Amino acid sequence: MRILRPRKLTELRLHSWSGHFQAQNQTPDILSIVMLVAQSSFKAAALIQRWYRRYMARLEMRRHCTWSIFQSIEYAGQQDQVKLHNFFSYLVDHFTPSSHNERVFLTRMFTEQRSPQDSQMENCGDYESIEVPDSYTGPRLSFPLLPDHATALVEAFRQKQRLHARYVLNLLHEARKHLVQLPNISRVSTCYSEEITVCGDLHGQLDDLIFIFYKNGLPSPERAYVFNGDFVDRGKDSVEILMILFAFMLVYPKEFHLNRGNHEDHMVNLRYGFTKEVMHKYKIHGKKILKLLQDVFCWLPLATLVDEKVLILHGGVSDRTDLELLAKLDRHKIVSTMRYKTRKNKKQAEEKGKANQMGSAERPSPWFLPQSRSLPSSPLRPSTHKAPRAGRSSSVPCGVPLDPKELSRRVRHSVDLELERCRQQAGFPAIKEKEEHSTSESDVDSDAEEQPEPTPEEWRQVVDILWSDPMAQEGCRANTVRGGGCYFGPNVTERLLQKYNLQLLIRSHECKPEGYEFCHGRKVLTIFSASNYYEVGSNRGAYVKLGPDLTPHIMQFQANKATHTLTMRQRISRVEESALRALREKLFAHSSDILVEFKKRDKDETGLITLSDWAAAVESVLHLGLPWRMLRPQLVSSLTDSKLAYKSWLENLAKEKLSQQNIQSSLLETLYRNRSNLETIFRIIDSDHSGSISLDEFRHTWKLFSSHMNIDITDDCICDLARSIDFNKDGHIDINEFLEAFRLVEQSCSGGDVSDCPQVTDSSNGVHTKASSVPVAQGASEAMPSSLLECLPYSP
């Protein structure tokens, strides 16, 4: 199309107007020409404005749909985490270990014990024995830290250098000593600083933290900071962010403050990547670092109060939030917000032992079965029924106050009696190796028993402030989208602010397109500091600055330079493509269930369904709450008489995945659906964070499964099963072998004839293994991991 210059265009218009006047036998004057030009210009401007508004509305609609996809999938993953943890928790609560080793393993699976080694972590021996080689070129730390040390640490991490494990442990020890002295709610005043900067979630994105320091300035006595939780997980630099934050906290203890988020939780870290990151970066000392980090997370303050007027906490509040209770509870007792731990006394233990001797008809049913009534409908709401906790010593009634030494002695004695009983039942003396470390393990149990447990109300208070989200409606209701915390309305916010004479609530926890969002009449401010959280260009990051007048000043940023070169349309298209790709994976992972729903709506068996039925069927399976009719053009490409050939559509979803891996569709669907759960299960079983499951860990865990499923399986069969999964025969099961075993078993179960299953090649030694190699153990085929796959708690 030829583009006319403005001058040429004006000449053409004047020529047309001249013809107009000649046709009307009128003599043109200047005023008439000017009025016609103005009228034409106004019409053109109105058309351009109308077109631009429609264009921007379409872009905004696409951006909103894209955002809904990302957020729905993210929250569905959090539901998976809560359900999977409750699944394991239920098994542990309703399983009585038959030996001391099983008790130690089950206790270690969900709780980080305060063993003597943990209580002595403040001693220098834990890290001073670690030598730093002369070849190490990374940053070096000496204590007490100086501002130059923290600045040098930021520069070293910016240049992709790694801090040596010795300095990591040293820094964590010093951070722990400082955090222990802090109150649950930190008090900050603008009288001592020019301004206070509040930052939201970082989620392991180091570029965002460095950008904030670059734009806003490094921490100093005049420039105070509050970081509002969720420093770790998802991103690849969580360790580096923690080291920087802890370093500045030690350098400026009065000006630099940290709040705990829901991701500062070792159970959440199992799923969202932080545990894996630590073990990858520090293969030798990773377990020690993780153990210390779990303890440090428990000591992080819960909230910060600025000038007694602005409350800063990670998630939100509820209609029962009590700041006085939060200020005085022992926050260190809240090891994880994923599960409320209950003590059990001797009577409960005896009743539990009798219950386990009863038939399967009287065995309690798990929450995922229809007849279940034993667990609450909301995963993070403990019911009034407190299931007895397995793995605790039961010889000492909890209601009787005892001296810690006496308590430790009695518990150790009960453990010895339990060991002796097990030896007598087995008919042979204990192995010497087990006797050598039984004392230390008894100390683990005794020290664990000495730890006071939080009350249900204390636990609920912490869960609410770490997991809750605001809503536009009045009231307070359970947060079923995340699976924990609550939704709180404007009236709940107003009541809390009035009760404690506050004027603003600052929280994080939710990704926002602009990096921030006001709600509840501008009395609640959400700040999110991880830009490009879902995809490059998906969202801005933001932080807020508070001066003496406490008026919030929002600063937005984009840490990725590539976003500045893209137009708005290019950014939205790029993010939309990523979101649709994630959604197609979700659809593929549930292809079988979706097909069943399609067939229900195709009563005439024509193979065609209407678009309305397509949208309803997909939503009934995935429960994502997405505008499927609006997404239909991106997800459904071809129609027949305004109807969808659903079998062809499902086949097209599978083509992309099947081209990447030579696995039949149903098996790959199972892996896509359960991979996150399987990886989390692997890390739960791998309780020592070694990166592989030992045969003992596998045996203890499988006894837990088989007892709950009422399957009689011997230790020999379990050992044979473990050895068959150990494809490279190194005595350990790594994550690839673990996932492969589930794939093979699902294949053998779905294919009917095991001999028809394809061979799998172990790339490490070139050995071809039949799928039937997994269930070779006699009596173990009924207890295959497929049973676990069938009851894996997943949500779309």
Give a description of the structure:
With 796 residues, the chain is α/β, with parallel strands linked by helices. Among the domains are: 162-341 and 456-563, Metallo-dependent phosphatases (Purple Acid Phosphatase, chain A, domain 2, 4-Layer Sandwich), CATH 3.60.21; 582-659, EF-hand (Recoverin, domain 1); 665-747, Recoverin, domain 1 (Orthogonal Bundle), CATH 1.10.238.10. The chain has 28 helices and 20 strands. Strands 1-5-6-10-12-11 form a six-stranded mixed sheet. Strands 4-3-2-13-14 form a five-stranded mixed sheet. α19 crosses α24 and α24 packs across α27 (735-751). It is globular, with a radius of gyration of 31 Å. It starts with 5 loop residues before the first helix and ends in a 5-residue tail after the last helix.
Main attributes of the structure:
single chain; 796 residues; alpha/beta; Purple Acid Phosphatase, chain A, domain 2; Recoverin, domain 1; six-stranded mixed beta sheet; five-stranded mixed beta sheet; 20 strands; 51% helix; disordered C terminus
Helix-strand makeup class:
alpha/beta
Average pLDDT score? 74
Q: What separation lies between the terminal Cα atoms?
A: 49 Å
CATH class of one domain: Alpha Beta
As for the CATH topology of one domain, it is: Purple Acid Phosphatase, chain A, domain 2
Strand order of the largest sheet: 1-5-6-10-12-11
CATH homologous superfamily label of one domain: Metallo-dependent phosphatases
Total E-strand runs: 20
